[in-house]
Fold this sequence. Notes:
Elements: E1 2-6, H1 13-22, E2 27-31, H2 38-50, E3 54-58, H3 61-64, E4 69-72, H4 74-77, H5 82-89, E5 93-97, H6 101-109, E6 114-117, H7 134-144, E7 149-151, H8 160-164, E8 170-173, H9 175-178, H10 183-198
Amino acid sequence: MYAIVDRASRVAPLWLLERLLAGGIRIVQYRAKDGVDLDVVRAMHERTRSAGALLVVNDDFEAALAADGWHAGQEDLAGRDPRELRARLGARLFGVSAGLPNEARAAEAFGADYVGTGPFATTQTKLDAGPAIGLAGLAAVVAATRLPVVAIGGIGTHNLEEVARSGAAMAALVSALAESPDPAARAAELIGRWQAART
C-alpha cells in the first residue's frame, strides 16, 4: 500500500500519518496542492524515519530534498532536465506519473524509481485526474516498463483485489484511508487483502 496524505482532506496530516504507520503503511506521499509546508514535511519525515517508513513529497522538488523522495507529474517535468533532477535527488526516490506506456518508458530511461499510473477508476480526490484507464490501461503501462507501477485513482475495498492481480507493484490510497473512522485498522485490513490477492 502506498498511502497519500493529502492536506486538502478533512483530517490533520500528522494525525493521519501516525495511524497509517500504526496500521503497517511503509511508504507515504505528502500532497499539498496549495503549497507544501516545509515544517510539516520535516515533522512527517521524523515520524516515518522512526517507523522505518519512507516519505515522498508530491510536486515540490525543494521540499522533497528534506524527505526520502519526490513524486513528479508530467507537468512538473516540463522544461526541466529529468537527468539533472535525478542527480540532485541522489539516493532519494524519484517517482513519476505516467498514464501512458510511452511516458513510463521515458521515466525508466531517465532514471525514475517507479511510475504512478491512473486514474484506475473514477475518483473525486483529484479533480484533474482525467478519465479512468481501467485494468487494460494499467496493464499496458505495467507491460511497458520494468519499473514498479503504482496504481492510483478510485481504488478502495471494492476493487483492491483486481488491482493486486493486475501486475501493479502497489496501490495508492487516499480517501479509502483518510475517510475511514479508524485509518490504522483500515490500513491493516487493506494490506492483508492485497497480500492475500497476490499469493
